[in-house]
Amino acid sequence: MECGVGWWVIVGIAVGWFWYRKKTNRVDKKCGIPEGNLGWPFIGETLDFIACGYTSRPASFMEKRKFLYGKVFKTNILGTPIIVSTDPQVNKAVLQNHAKSFVPAYPKSIRELMGDHSILQMSGNLHRRIHGIIARFLKSPELKSRITKDIENSVKNTLASWQHTNDHLIYVQNEVKKITFQVLVKVLISIGPGEDLEFLKTEFDEFIKGLICLPIKLPGTRLYKSLKAKQKMFKMVKKIVEERKRTMDKISMEDKGSNNTVIDAVDALLRDNDEAKERNPLPLDFITGNIIEMMIPGQETMPTAMTLAVKFLSGCPVALSQIRKENMELKRQKTRSCDEYSWTDYMSLTFTQNVISETLRSANIINAVWRKAVKDVEIKGNLIPEGWCVLTSFTSVHMNEEYYENPYQFDPWRWEKTGAAVVNNCFTPFGGGQRLCPGLELSRLEIAIFLHHLVTSYWWIAEEDEIVYFPTVKMKRKLPIKVTTWRNSP
C-alpha cells in the first residue's frame, strides 16, 4: 500500500515536470525571449529570491543573473514565469506603455484585500481620471499652504514628547508613524487627533498585515482578519463620504458659487462627480474603497523613508553636520523675520533635499514594479510573451556602479553632480509613467519638515540596528536612539 502511494507521488511529480517543461519549451521557441533559468517546477527560483531579500544586498539576486544573462533575463518567482529588467530604458518603456501592452500584476493577497475596483488594478481612462484628480489636488496651492502647517504641528507634537525621556530609548520607526498617519488622514478625510483617528489607526495596522500573506480567507487566517479590519474602516469612511456628499449637495442647491474650496481627497473626488454628471459618476463605495487604499503608500513608505534618513545621517557625521548647519540657518532667518515657514522654504533646502534623494535611492523602499503583458511585446530586442509578468527592478538600477559611483555608500553630495541620473531614468523611487506617485512632492515636504525640526531640536546617538529588506523594507529593531535636546547638547 505504501509503495503504491509512493509510486503515484513519483508519477505525479514526473507528469508535472513534463507538463511544465512542455509549456516553457513552447514559449522558449519564440525568438527574442531573454536568456535565463526558470528553476524548479512551480517554485522556480523563489527560494534564492527570498534568501537574497534577507541579506544586506537584496539586489544580489538580480546581479548574479545580470552577470550570466544580461540586463534583461527570465526567471520564475512564486510559481510565475517572469522577465526581469535591470535596464532603465526597458523599465521606462514598460512603465510608460501602460494599458496598451501591460496591466498591473500583484499577488493574490493584495488583489483580495483591495477588491475589483482598486486603483492598483484599474487601467485606461478610469485610472487616468482618478490619478489626475488626486494629482491636481495634491499640487494645489491651497493644500500646500494648509498641509505645511498641519505637518509642522504633527512633527512638533511628536518631538515635544521626547523631551522628558531621560535615558529611555526612542524608537524612531514607531514615532514617525504617529506623524505620518495623522497627516495622511487629514489629507484624505480631514480627521484630526481623537477617537476616530485612533480607531482608524488600529484597524489600518491590522488591515495592512495581510498585504503579503497566504491568500486563504478562512476564519482565523491573516487574510480573513485583514478583510474584517477593512470592513470596519470602510464603514467609518463611507459614513464620512455620505455626509460630505449630502452637505455638498445642500450647499450647491442654496448657492452654487459658495462651495469652491477643496479641503481633502474626498472633496476632490466628490467635486469631480458633481462636475461630471454627464459622464459616469463615481459610486460612493468606489470612492470609499480608494480613500482607504490611498492610505497604504503614505503609511507604509513614508515612515520607512524618515526612519532610514535618521539611520543614514547617524552613520555619516559629516552629512549630519551639514544638514544641521543648513537648517539652523533657515531657523535663524525665520526667528529674525517672525515669518511662518512655507512649502517653498522646506523644498528649497538644497542639501536636505539631496539627503532625501540619497535616502530614497539607497533604501529602495519601492524596489520594483510588476506588470503583466496582454500581448507579445518587444523592447530593445527582448520579447516579453503574452501572459508573462515583467518585473522592472528599481533596486538594480539604483545600486548599479554604471549609474552611481560606490552605490552602497551613503553620499548625499553625489546629487550635486548627478542630476543626469534623474533625466536618464536611473532614479525611480516614486515609480514612473502614468502611475508616477502623485504625492511625490508631498512626501519630500513631509520628510524635509521632520528632518528640519529634528536636527534643529535634538542631538541623538543611534544604537546598532540593521535594515530588513523582505518582505518589506524596515528596521529590525525599529531604530532605537537616545536623544538630547539642543539646549543641553554638546
UniProtKB/TrEMBL annotation:
One of its GO terms (molecular function) is heme binding. Heme binds at residue 437. The chain crosses the membrane at residues 5-20. The lineage of its organism: Eukaryota, Viridiplantae, Streptophyta, Embryophyta, Tracheophyta. InterPro entries: Cyt_P450 (IPR001128), Cyt_P450_CS (IPR017972), Cyt_P450_E_grp-IV (IPR002403), Cyt_P450_sf (IPR036396). CDD domains: CYP90-like. It catalyses: (22S,24R)-22-hydroxy-5alpha-ergostan-3-one + reduced [NADPH--hemoprotein reductase] + O2 = 3-dehydro-6-deoxoteasterone + oxidized [NADPH--hemoprotein reductase] + H2O + H(+); 3-epi-6-deoxocathasterone + reduced [NADPH--hemoprotein reductase] + O2 = 6-deoxotyphasterol + oxidized [NADPH--hemoprotein reductase] + H2O + H(+). This is 22alpha-hydroxysteroid 23-monooxygenase. GO terms for biological process: brassinosteroid biosynthetic process; brassinosteroid homeostasis; leaf development; petal development; stamen development; sterol metabolic process. The keyword rRNA-binding does not apply. Keywords: Brassinosteroid biosynthesis, Heme, Iron, Lipid biosynthesis, Lipid metabolism, Membrane, Metal-binding, Monooxygenase, Oxidoreductase, Steroid biosynthesis, Transmembrane, Transmembrane helix. Its EC number is 1.14.14.147. Pathway: Hormone biosynthesis; Steroid biosynthesis; Plant hormone biosynthesis; brassinosteroid biosynthesis. Its cofactor is heme. Gene3D superfamilies: Cytochrome P450. It is found in: Endoplasmic reticulum membrane. It is a single-pass membrane protein. It comes from Erythroxylum novogranatense. GO terms for cellular component: endoplasmic reticulum membrane. PANTHER family: 3-EPI-6-DEOXOCATHASTERONE 23-MONOOXYGENASE CYP90C1, CYTOCHROME P450 26. Pfam families: p450. Its main location: endoplasmic reticulum. Belongs to the cytochrome P450 family. It is an enzyme of class 1 (oxidoreductase).
